[in-house]
């Protein structure tokens, strides 16, 4: 028997059973206790949990157009560090990813970076303007094989455009990922509308502006029998609508970001724009509703909405600052802190919400696969017993707008394997990958 | 106390101490020589990223009466209008050795950003930030109320104040609610529901949509300016209807308590939120607010830069 490329010894599977995992030729060669063969690299997994490689359905990689904030390569590095083996590049680049040309470019950049799979998301409408449909079919048929379409950053607010988009993607089993934000109710909005915005004199972004769009769109999706995904759900009311829609059999899925599982709107009291994000941080009771909904499956997945911005976009007055925060390198730790350590979810559920379900929604082959011999070895190994302190000066992203600077978080991503090759070993990026 | 960013930065005794210091300084202003040497050699910058002639000249007069050197830095014609960031402006002021920056800015929180950053080391005085706060205005309003109606005590216990108008967008209202309630006054906010913020329920104030039912019971009616841009943004059907329900005219003034006063932070829209007859009536203390503004701003600069309150009765 030839020696394995890697052997992870004594690691816990998501269900808690201990095993050895041997990886060879890109696949899981053996997954059972007491592996007898040789291995080039042997890793001690005794304090660790292994999960299928994380899959992010919502990432802003900024390339093309804002390479000062992030590139496909720098975002891939941040992703590998955070335990991801697949990212979904949002369409709001410059130029917008509304043609086959742009999505193929982003896909190719991902392949060249070689640290994980980058699946481009196509724009629903030309230029994200919400008016005319983009080249949806051409993007679906391109090398990038786009299945997820989103105007994220903007809401597809015209109900007729939304209806047509939902209908059109049925042709190839696509999904529309809606950024639910009624634009008229949120003109100039800066933060969650409530007690804190009243005190701070910052223009409110009311929960109802999100909930009204979700309610409308689940009804449209039901009517045309198509597939809808709700991006970054933030409100207790939105959770109720999704719960109702699922009970009714509507084909809707929903995501929550790590930051909405932890942070609340009172952080805006500092006027520090590192906490400015769209949709905004909500209240404590929203956070609890989101956690419960993620635990009971009403919310299907965690997605980062990783949104890098250059320093000057945040080093200014709140209302001048850009919306968004980094997420890739801290996502798993925040989920451990809010969901696992709190007893709400098991590691098996983390695997479902952060890998299996997002891969299913996006139609990403070879991701979120069962941990069995023969599966493509897209894996992450995490040590949940260790803690680490976030330092914005040490992130691998090109930007440093993390809201967790100085926070001590549980859970260290120790190894990430992409197609059977380690991209991260003992917390350090390996030298694989292009460029 | 290093900065004055929000009334929430003050406790009751600090607020009263500023008012007492202002009383002492007002006596100086009444004398033949209006100047004190206290801040000689200190540099105060008026950083006005938003036009406000009255607040700027009030702070300028206050600083000059304390013998400080004053630099005015206004939006128009300055680097601010050329897109320079707040950070670069602050670092420039730091490099020039500003001991204090009095900042007026259209962005809520701009003063706090300046104070919390490491861009400059001087004191920051918030002279109005967006729709957040305007603490010096609230202090001069409290000073004016105490002077007219104070029951002899140092605070405003026992008094009722109505603040009427666009509460949603008013930094004057936010600062006054915090300060007047801290000083013991009972505050009622009067506005159409569209101009009250969602999330107002935990403010230390009552809310009414009915001006007429409030008027006979208050000692102070403080009118707020209706901004031009609100008139076309669905907050109320039209200007005449607003004026009919929430304007202070002679009829309403006739229902006021004996001795009750009328205030307005200015600039007024005569004929809209306040009629000319009311603005110019004996109940109006509006020009006196302006006068008191200088004394109160002297007191703020004194407390921040001269390291403490002026002893009552000292020179």
**Approximate strand percentage of chain A:** 15-25%
CATH class of the largest domain in chain A: Alpha Beta
Full CATH superfamily name of the largest domain in chain A:
Metal-dependent hydrolases
- Largest interface, C-beta within 8 A: A-B, 24 and 26 residues
Q: What is the rounded distance between the termini of chain B?
A: 22 Å
Largest sheet of chain B: 5 strands, parallel
- Per DSSP, the total helix count of chain A is 11
CATH topology name of the largest domain in chain B: Rossmann fold
Rounded Rg of chain A: 21 Å
- Strand residue percentage of chain B: 5-15%
User: What is the average per-residue confidence, as pLDDT of chain B, rounded to a whole number?
Assistant: 92
Can you count the helices of chain B?
11
Q: Tell me about the largest β-sheet of chain A.
A: 5 strands, antiparallel
Helix content of chain A: 25-40%
Query: What is the CATH-assigned architecture of the largest domain in chain A?
Result: Alpha-Beta Barrel
> In which range does the helix fraction of chain B lie?
25-40%
Structural class category of chain A:
alpha/beta
Oligomer: heterodimer
């Amino acid at each position: 028997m030839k020696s394995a490329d890697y052997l992870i010894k004594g690691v816990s599977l998501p269900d808690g059973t201990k095993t050895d995992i041997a990886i060879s030729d890109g696949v899981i060669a053996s997954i059972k206790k007491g592996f007898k063969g040789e291995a080039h690299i042997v890793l001690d997994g005794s304090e660790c949990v292994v999960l299928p490689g994380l899959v992010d359905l919502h990432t802003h990689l900024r390339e093309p157009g804002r390479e000062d904030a992030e590139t496909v390569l720098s975002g891939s590095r941040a992703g590998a560090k955070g335990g991801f083996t697949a990212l979904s590049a949002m369409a709001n680049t410059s130029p917008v990813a509304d043609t086959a040309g742009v999505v193929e470019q982003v896909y190719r950049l991902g392949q060249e970076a070689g640290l994980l799979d980058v699946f481009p998301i196509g724009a629903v409408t030309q230029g994200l303007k919400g008016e005319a449909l983009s080249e949806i079919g051409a993007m679906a048929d391109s090398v990038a094989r786009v299945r997820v379409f989103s105007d994220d950053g903007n809401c597809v607010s015209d109900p007729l455009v939304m209806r047509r988009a939902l209908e059109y993607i049925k042709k190839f089993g696509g999904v529309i990922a809606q950024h639910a934000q009624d634009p008229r109710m949120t003109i100039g909005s800066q933060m969650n509308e409530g007690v804190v915005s009243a005190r701070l004199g910052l223009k409110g972004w009311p929960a109802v502006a999100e909930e009204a769009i979700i309610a409308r769109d689940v009804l449209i999706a039901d009517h045309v029998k198509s597939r809808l995904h709700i991006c970054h759900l933030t409100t207790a009311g939105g959770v109720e609508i999704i719960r109702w829609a699922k009970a009714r059999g509507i084909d809707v899925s929903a995501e929550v970001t790590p930051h909405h599982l932890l942070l609340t709107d009172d952080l805006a009291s500092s006027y520090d724009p590192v906490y400015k994000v769209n949709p905004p941080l909500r209240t404590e009771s929203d956070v609890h509703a989101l956690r419960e909904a993620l635990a009971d499956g009403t919310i299907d997945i965690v997605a980062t909405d990783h949104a890098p911005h250059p320093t000057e976009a945040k080093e200014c007055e709140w209302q001048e600052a850009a919306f968004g925060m980094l997420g890739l390198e801290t996502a798993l730790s925040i989920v451990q802190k809010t969901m696992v350590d709190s007893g709400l979810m098991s590691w098996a559920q983390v695997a479902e919400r952060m890998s299996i379900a997002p891969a299913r929604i996006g139609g990403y082959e070879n991701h979120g696969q069962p941990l069995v011999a023969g599966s493509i070895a897209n894996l992450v190994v995490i040590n949940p017993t260790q803690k680490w302190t976030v330092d914005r000066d040490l992130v691998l992203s090109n930007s440093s707008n993390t809201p967790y600077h100085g926070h001590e978080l549980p859970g260290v991503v120790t190894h990430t394997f992409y197609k059977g090759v380690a991209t991260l070993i003992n917390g350090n990026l390996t030298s694989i990958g292009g460029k | 106390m290093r900065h004055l960013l929000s009334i929430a930065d003050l406790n009751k005794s600090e607020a009263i101490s500023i008012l007492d210091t202002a009383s002492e300084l007002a006596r100086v202003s009444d004398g033949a020589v209006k100047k004190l040497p206290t801040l000689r050699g200190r540099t105060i910058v008026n950083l006005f990223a938003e036009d406000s002639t009255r607040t700027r000249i009030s702070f300028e007069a206050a600083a000059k009466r304390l013998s400080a050197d004053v630099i005015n830095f206004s939006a128009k014609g300055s680097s601010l209008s050329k897109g320079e960031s707040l950070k670069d402006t602050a670092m420039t002021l730091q490099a020039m050795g500003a001991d204090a920056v009095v900042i007026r800015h259209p962005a809520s929180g701009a003063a706090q950003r300046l104070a919390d950053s490491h861009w400059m080391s001087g004191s920051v005085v918030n002279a109005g930030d967006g729709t957040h706060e305007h603490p010096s205005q609230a202090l001069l309003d409290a000073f004016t109320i105490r002077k007219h109606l104070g029951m002899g005590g140092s605070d405003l216990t026992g008094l009722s104040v109505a603040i009427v108008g666009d509460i949603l967008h008013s930094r004057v209202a936010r600062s006054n609610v915090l300060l007047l309630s801290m000083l013991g006054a009972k505050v009622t906010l009067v506005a159409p529901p569209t101009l009250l913020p969602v999330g107002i329920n935990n403010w230390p104030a009552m809310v009414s949509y009915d001006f007429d039912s409030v008027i006979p019971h208050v000692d102070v009616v403080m009118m707020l300016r209706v901004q031009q841009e609100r008139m076309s943004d669905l907050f109320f059907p039209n200007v005449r209807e607003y004026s009919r329900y929430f304007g202070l005219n002679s009829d309403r003034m006739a229902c006021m308590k004996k001795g009750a006063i009328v205030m307005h932070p200015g600039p007024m829209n005569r004929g809209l939120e306040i009629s000319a007859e009311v603005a110019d009536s004996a109940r109006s203390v509006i020009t006196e607010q302006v006068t008191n503004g200088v004394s109160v701003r002297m007191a703020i600069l004194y407390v921040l830069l001269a390291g403490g309150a002026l002893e009552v009765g000292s020179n």
